[in-house]
């Protein structure tokens, strides 16, 4: 079988997309020993293109280095004794001790290395990083920033939510990196942009300067000022230059910008901004549209406006808010 | 259509393949890419281990979490594999590529963890035996196992899945999740345990077949 074909076939298999006949084919292919090597090579390649989370490699490497340094060669096991059964249990216990030690180290080091900045529901927070970058964190968002700048990762942050960055240009041209999860990353030298990273996707709006965007499949694209990047399904994306940029920056003034916007979208935005579930049971109501610019510091302000403007009823339930058409 | 779709991420853009799609295609693999690593091990095993760690740690963690659904457990398993690799001087005995050995090991270890977690007839004290060359069928079954787990989780009710992910994958505390989901801590606990028991039940069913094929 051609290598490019088997690569595609294996990738499909890892995704669980192969037919049972194809699976049989792979199984037969695997009976040849060298092909098992190839299998793991492609597995590794597949994994590197589909990250699940951002393991803290540097911290883990530090722990591993101490293992490397502290390992007493005379204590290292000899293959002969290991084969004897009575030792198995002791060895297992010993292993467990090592694991828990490593685990404790890892768990604490993470908290030590990164500081978490959280903005509560409906609240925005400004923060100045040690290297000068200004961050305006939108409501209901979290930013992880390095605690110690001397470790060389001073310009790397993790964003879950939405924020505007005013990145300072450093003298030695260090890159500033925003990791947004799902392997989306923004790389810049000095610029101003708004990043959005929530459950429904990723969005980047560039105001000034130039940024490099790293996409999940390892591709990289460059953005120009005024460009808007929106992630789509399965790694697709859309790059536009919107004439009106207010929808992407309105949150900075605690305002909501609606332009013929679906009520279901409005509900989603309220959830994101205030961390409050808003549901619309009536599908016809969900499809109604609204326009205008509304200032709202609290969720109740906006709901009040909506209720008066659209003649709808706002019902406070135990764990969510429901929008409904009032019964006559 | 709204002029500014505020929720454009949900949209399905037909045929949206931007022009710069092929901007940076992933390059082809290099034949025998571990040759340098091997030489490093021959010269200085400690440096070799460090290099190996740098090269594979992240990918192995990403692979392991597919099985164990917990960042911490995944990172522990992978770190532990590297630790024993060094301490037992396994690098002297490996006949395959380091990559194949490491992947086989973490898959096996993740599988054992899962087995222990689902408490399906085997105890964790059972000797951890890694067959040197798993049969093609076994090799494929590991991949099918993590796909199955993904499927089970994906089919959970939304609230249940959310609580499970926050608890297991993100490792948050019950009251933190309760706050985030605007429900009581008790309710979160119930959701998580419902998810776990579903996982346990479906995996056990899957497992009867799995283990039969695996160990017979």
Automatic annotation (TrEMBL), chain A:
Origin superkingdom: Bacteria
GO MF annotations in UniProt: sigma factor antagonist activity
Gene3D superfamilies registered for this protein in UniProt: 2.60.120.1440, 3.55.50.30
Residues annotated as domain Protein FecR C-terminal: 256-321
Entry keywords, A to Z: Membrane, Transmembrane, Transmembrane helix
Annotated TM spans: 92-109
This protein's record includes keyword Transmembrane: yes
Domain FecR protein: 118-212
PANTHER family listed in its UniProt record: PERIPLASMIC SIGNAL SENSOR AND SIGMA FACTOR ACTIVATOR FECR-RELATED, PROTEIN FECR
Protein name: FecR family protein
Source species of the chain: Dyadobacter soli
From TrEMBL, chain B:
All residue ranges annotated as the RNA polymerase sigma-70 region domain in the record: 52-115
Sample GO molecular function, one term: sigma factor activity
Region (Disordered): 1-25
Alphabetized Pfam families for the sequence: Sigma70_r2, Sigma70_r4_2
InterPro entries: RNA_pol_sigma-70-like (IPR039425), RNA_pol_sigma-70_dom (IPR014284), RNA_pol_sigma70_bacteroid (IPR014327), RNA_pol_sigma70_r2 (IPR007627), RNA_pol_sigma70_r4_t2 (IPR013249), RNA_pol_sigma_r2 (IPR013325), RNA_pol_sigma_r3/r4-like (IPR013324), WH-like_DNA-bd_sf (IPR036388)
Boundaries of every RNA polymerase sigma factor 70 region 4 type domain copy: 147-199
Stored CDD domains: Sigma70_r4 (cd06171)
One Gene Ontology term from the biological process aspect of the record: DNA-templated transcription initiation
Alphabetized UniProt keyword annotations: Sigma factor, Transcription, Transcription regulation
Superkingdom assignment: Bacteria
Family the UniProt entry places it in: Belongs to the sigma-70 factor family. ECF subfamily.
Name this polypeptide is given: RNA polymerase sigma-70 factor, ECF subfamily
């Amino acid at each position: 079988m051609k290598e490019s074909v088997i690569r595609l076939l294996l990738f499909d298999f890892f995704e669980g997309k192969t037919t049972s006949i194809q699976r049989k084919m792979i199984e037969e292919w695997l009976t040849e020993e060298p092909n098992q090597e190839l299998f793991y090579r492609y597995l590794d390649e597949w994994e590197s293109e589909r990250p699940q989370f951002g393991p803290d490699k540097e911290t883990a490497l530090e722990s591993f280095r101490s293992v490397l340094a502290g390992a007493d060669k005379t204590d290292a096991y000899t293959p002969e004794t290991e084969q004897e059964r009575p030792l198995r249990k002791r060895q297992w216990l010993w292993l467990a001790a090592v694991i828990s030690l490593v685990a404790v180290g890892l768990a604490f080091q993470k908290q030590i290395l990164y500081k978490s900045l959280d903005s509560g529901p409906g609240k925005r927070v400004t923060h100045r990083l040690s290297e000068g970058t200004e961050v305006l964190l939108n409501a209901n968002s979290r930013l992880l920033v390095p605690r110690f700048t001397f470790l060389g990762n001073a310009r790397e942050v993790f964003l879950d939510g939405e924020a505007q960055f005013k990145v300072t240009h450093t003298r030695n041209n260090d890159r500033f990196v925003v990791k947004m999860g799902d392997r989306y990353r923004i790389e810049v030298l000095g610029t101003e942009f708004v990043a959005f990273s929530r459950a429904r996707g990723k969005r980047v709006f560039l105001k000034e300067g130039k940024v490099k965007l790293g996409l999940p499949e390892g591709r990289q694209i460059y953005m120009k000022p005024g460009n808007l990047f929106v992630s789509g399904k399965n790694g697709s994306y859309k790059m536009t230059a919107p004439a009106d940029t207010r929808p992407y920056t309105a949150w900075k003034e605690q305002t909501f910008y609606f332009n013929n916007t679906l009520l279901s979208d409005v509900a989603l935005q309220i959830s994101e901004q205030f961390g409050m579930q808003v549901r619309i049971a009536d599908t016809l109501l969900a499809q109604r549209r609204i326009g205008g610019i509304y200032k709202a510091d609290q969720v109740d302000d906006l709901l009040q406006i909506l209720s008066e403007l659209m003649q709808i009823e706002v019902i406070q339930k135990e764990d969510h808010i429901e929008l409904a058409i009032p019964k006559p | 259509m709204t002029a500014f779709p505020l929720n454009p991420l949900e949209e399905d853009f037909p045929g949206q393949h931007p022009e710069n799609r092929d901007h940076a295609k992933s390059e082809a693999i290099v034949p025998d890419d571990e040759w340098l690593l091997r030489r490093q091990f021959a010269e200085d095993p400690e440096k070799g281990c460090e290099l190996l760690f740098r090269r594979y740690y992240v990918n192995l963690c990403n692979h392991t979490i597919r099985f164990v659904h917990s960042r911490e457990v995944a990172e522990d398993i992978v770190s532990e594999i590297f630790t024993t690799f060094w301490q037992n001087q396994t690098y002297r005995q490996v006949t395959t590529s380091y990559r194949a050995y490491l992947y086989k090991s973490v898959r096996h270890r993740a599988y054992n963890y899962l087995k222990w977690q689902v408490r399906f007839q085997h105890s964790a004290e059972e000797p951890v035996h890694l067959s040197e060359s798993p049969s093609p069928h076994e090799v494929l079954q590991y991949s099918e196992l993590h796909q199955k787990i993904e499927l089970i989780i994906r089919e959970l009710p939304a609230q249940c899945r959310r609580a499970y992910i926050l608890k297991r994958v993100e490792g948050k505390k019950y009251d933190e999740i309760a706050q985030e989901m605007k429900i009581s801590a008790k309710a979160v606990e119930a959701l998580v345990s419902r998810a776990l028991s579903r996982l346990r039940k479906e995996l056990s069913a899957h497992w009867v077949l799995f283990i039969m094929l695996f160990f017979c």
